[in-house]
Amino acid sequence: MPDIAIFNYMARGFLKQPTDFYLRPLFVSMKDYSLLANSTNHCFGNEPIHNIVFGWFKEFLTKYVHLPTFSLTFMSDISHNLLNDLQLVDDDLVTMLQQLFKQGIFNNTMLIVMGDHGHRYDFIRSTYVGSLEERLPFFSITLPDWWLKNHPLIHNSLKKNTKRLTTFYDVHETMLNLLNFDKFYKNKKNQRDNRGLSLFRDIPRDRTCSKAEIDMHYCTCQKQTRVEISHPVVLRSTRKAIARLNALLYQYRHLCAVLKLSTIIDAHVTDNDNITKILKISALNTIHEDYTIMFETLPSKAVFEATIRHYAVGNRYVIQGEISRVNKYGNQSICIKNARLRRYCFCVEQTTNK
After folding, report:
1. Exposure winner among 90, 165, 199, 219, fewest CB in 10 A?
2. pLDDT digits (tens, 9 = 90+) for 69-92
3. Would strands 260-270 and 111-114 be described as parallel, antiparallel, or unpaired?
4. What letter does residue 8 receive in the DSSP assignment?
5. How far apart are alpha carbons 54 and 67 in whole angstroms?
6. Which residues of the chain register pLDDT less than 70?
7. Sign of the alpha-carbon dihedral angle for 215, 219, 222, 223
8. Within 10 Å of residue 185's Cβ, how many Cβ atoms?
9. Which residues pair with 260 in a beta bridge?
10. What's the pLDDT score for residue 121?
């Protein structure tokens, strides 16, 4: 999906080709080719698009097997709109990986298979399970057996860390460690004050979202309990969130409609099992509850999800992190070019043309 590539969506991209081999020109050309328009979904003629990517990936690794290489192979088309379409890749992905393993391509390679995030716009996103799925993308790391046998402490840490709180900053730190492995190996412990911690060392068992610098809105470490949508705190929190949205859009007030509440869809409050302990050791003005609320606005019929922290003392409401858009917005915001705010805007011209 070249239109929404991370370096190109509402961005300038690259003036010069950033890598030795760059697949973007091919996909830009394919997008404008009549064969794509006449092909079935996810195909280019009679060839699944993901197999074109897999073929390029295999050829690159095979040709340069004796040289140090790095490859980032990224696909979003197959699952961007429908979560269940991802299963169409399963057999071909397994076949490709098995072939490369049999050829010994991965005998000196770290292989990572991952998603950047879970599904954001399919129907499942409007459910509680969907909100967890969005925040917990798939991640796997594979290293050669001989290398893991030579580094049993690292192997043990990798297994332990499957049960610990980790982020992509940790993946970045791990890749840096591999590039500077001798220096890393002399340092036997993680630096606990770093945002990224190496997966080659034990991630602290007591790591929290706060320590990992994860916004509460995206934290999945706490239990949540459903709250009645008519609860006064839920109503006030929702009004606070909509006020924030309109404040963000104020600079585009001549283009974007003022958002108003249509309905509150769902609400949860974070369980605080340590409330008694907190009451004893914390100042009263720090006692709070976090509410995650899903609501729909007019005139856009946009569905948003926000996490709002309510402080009992002073009856204060503070939005945690960004507000998520959890249904498609398509061309609703075509009148502005701000990539961050397009998910919120509903162009005024759409209301006047109805």
Report:
1. 90
2. 999 988 877 777 777 888 889 999
3. unpaired
4. T
5. 20
6. 1-4, 188-193, 272-286, 351-354
7. positive
8. 13
9. 298
10. 73
314 token code pair: 């002073």
Prediction pTM value: 0.84
Q: How high is the pLDDT of residue 110? A: 95
Q: Cα torsion for 205, 209, 214, 218, to the nearest 10°?
A: 120
Q: Which stretch of DSSP H or E encloses residue 226? A: strand 224-226
DSSP 287-331: -EEEEEEEEEEETT--EEEEEEEEETTTTEEEE-SPPEE-S--TT
pLDDT attached to residue 60: 94
SS3 96: helix
The values of phi and psi at residue 57, to 5°, are: -65, -45
Sequence length of the chain is 354
pLDDT given for residue 187 in this prediction: 78
Alpha carbon of 41 to those of 2, 3, 76, 78, 115: distances in Å? Answer: 16, 17, 13, 9, 21
